[in-house]
Amino acid sequence: MTEFLPVSSSGHLILLPSLLGWQVQSLAFDTVLHMGTVAALIGYFWRDLLEIIKSKNYLILLVVGSLPAAISGLLLQDFIETTLRSSAYVAAFLLAGSLIMWLAEITYKKLWHEQRMDDPQKLGLKKITAIGVFQSLALFSGISRSGATISGGMFMGMTREAAAKFSFILSIPIVLAAGMFKVVDSYRELNFDLAMLTGFLASFVVGMLAIKYLLKFLKSHDLYIFIVYRIILAVVVLITLF
């Protein structure tokens, strides 16, 4: 669920085992869950993906929008995963991500109240690149890929719903690439037993529902409920630490 909601899935994957005393799951199990979320994205947007394949312009936008996250991941991921994955850092990035989302809401309401767009192809390459830069912030556990990318879209003048939809579609190349790397790293441990199958189905079904209801929610609601949740979670984490 948190893979698609703007509350930071990686942050929750760090915090929940720590707070509840769970044993960290194996890389193989993590890979299977990742495959479930990939399947949810493709399963929900398969019609859009067929249209995108036929559109040269949209494919170029996806490549351009994916480059900042791809480059940042190659350069910084090892450093971030070994240095910035403690609960304290997650709490800090939860607050930082909340600030980004709050500023996006202010900008959205003040600057774009009459000129909001629902087609990313109208933005141009510079704005698509900027949205891609926002997506790359998801490397920091606690920021939230969907929260940052939706905010980026809103900063550039997209409607909330259109920004969320583009955020999900833009994530597909990155999520697929990350999934392929995980499969390569863990293929020797992969065995689809009952636990693996249950995890895959849970991440797929809940992922589909999360996408559907977030898009529906953002048609008529703002991001403030997620901002409040993130702040409360960050405060709880800091209290438990100090």
What does this protein look like?
- The chain is an all-alpha fold and 242 residues long.
- It has one domain (28-241).
- 76% of the residues lie in helices and 0% in strands.
- It contains 10 helices and no strands.
- It has helices at residues 9-20, 27-44, 46-54, 56-83, 87-111, 125-136, 145-155, 160-186, 194-218, 224-241.
- Helix 1 (9-20) runs antiparallel to helix 5 (87-111) and helix 4 crosses helix 8.
- The longest helix is centred in the first third of the chain and has 28 residues, at 56-83.
Number of helices: 10
What about the largest sheet? none
Helicity level, as a percent range?
over 70%
Global outline: globular
Main structural class: mainly alpha
Total discrete domains: 1
Distance between the termini: 29 Å
Average predicted confidence as pLDDT = 88
Order of helices and strands: HHHHHHHHHH
